[in-house]
Design goal:
Helix content: 25-40%
Largest sheet: 7 strands, mixed
CATH architecture of the largest domain: 2-Layer Sandwich
Shape: elongated
Order of helices and strands: HHHEEEHEEHEEEEHHHEEEEE
Radius of gyration: 22 Å
Number of helices: 8
Number of strands: 14
Bound molecules: biotin
Number of domains: 3
């Protein structure tokens, strides 16, 4: 345990003002060192108030500080504000970070979605990127983001009683409103996946701006503030389990059993073309099979899907 974590734990357990002198005795360091650590913690956004009587940690039931993540804490990289968690994850992945390294941010100034869209990332949402290193061939890589969406939707249903369903490829909707989006980027080594960066944006307690037409948050649906830490810990545990015993058939079966796309008349747009038809199935690699009006079938492997 580092000194900052020890100070955090002391102040959290104190639930009241705690003197700097007592901390210095408990940790065997000078009062000046205690003060320097606390100054650094305040600078990184930890709500500690200083007074002549000592230090007070303002309780924050929704904190996402790494020290709150138990066994996951060494993998968590936490930022108050960042351009995009995808950027930081890219740096870490290229430097060889371990499997299941997670970058979390309270706010993103340049959060992005699929198809080069902006992902509004105000306070209260859950924004994170997980770097995963599955031993799978490149052709199966798109199943990794499908797995993330399947696990998040399943968590929202089982733990929050939210009627979350999947829209191809990996949006999560409640009724017709979007509650979660997944963006993933991959790097390869030969014919194998080197790593996949799976970025997840979940509307939790954030206020949805007028720009975000058709979006909904967990807070609005449940009528109360929802702590984000539990969501993230459960998601990471379930996602890890899913990738450790990677079974494409059962993943696709799980996606199909809770999707809103199959059976719909859709059009799917990529940056180059649009295909229109009835979504009839998902193939073994996560592609969407469309029945076209002329009787032929076409499989789309990426793009934006609109339910007509
Ligand atoms: C989409 O539905 O278009 C995907 C949205 C993905 C948003 C998340 S938020 C965390 C991570 N960082 C980003 O900049 N984007 C992803």
């Amino acid at each position: 345990m580092g000194q900052k974590e020890k100070i955090y734990t002391i102040l959290k357990e104190a639930e009241d003002v705690f003197s700097g002198e007592k901390i210095s005795i408990m940790l065997g360091i000078s009062r000046v060192s205690v003060w320097k650590h606390i100054k650094g913690m305040v600078r990184s956004g930890i709500p500690i108030i200083s007074s002549p009587q000592g230090y007070y940690l303002t309780p924050d039931p929704d904190t996402l500080l790494p020290w709150e993540f138990g066994a996951w804490q060494d993998r968590i990289h936490y930022f108050q504000e960042i351009s995009s968690t995808m950027d930081e994850a890219t740096e870490l992945a290229r430097q060889g970070c371990p499997d299941f390294t997670v970058v979390i941010a309270e706010r993103q100034t340049m959060g992005r979605g699929r198809m080069k869209r902006v992902w509004f990332s105000g306070d209260g949402g859950l924004y994170f990127t997980v770097v995963v290193r599955p031993s799978i061939p490149i052709m199966l890589a798109s199943l990794v983001n499908l797995a993330a969406a399947v696990e998040m939707a399943s968590l929202l249903r089982s733990s929050y009683n939210i009627q979350a369903s999947l829209k191809w490829p990996n949006d999560i909707l409640v009724d017709k409103s979007k509650i979660c989006g997944v963006l993933s980027q991959m790097e390869t080594e030969g014919d194998q996946v080197s790593h996949v960066r799976v970025g997840v944006g979940l509307n939790v307690n954030n206020n949805l701006d007028l720009e975000e037409v058709g979006a909904v948050s967990l807070k609005t649906l449940s009528g109360k503030h929802v702590p984000r830490k539990e969501i993230l810990i459960s998601f990471l545990n379930n996602f890890k389990k899913r990738l450790t015993v990677f079974n494409p058939e059962s993943l696709i079966a799980d996606w199909k059993s809770n999707n809103t796309t199959i059976g719909q008349h859709v059009h799917v747009s990529t940056l180059k073309k649009t295909v229109e038809g009835t979504a009839v199935d998902m193939d073994s690699l996560g592609g969407l099979i469309l029945q076209i009006a002329d009787g032929s079938r076409e499989t789309v492997i990426h793009g934006d899907c609109f339910h007509n």
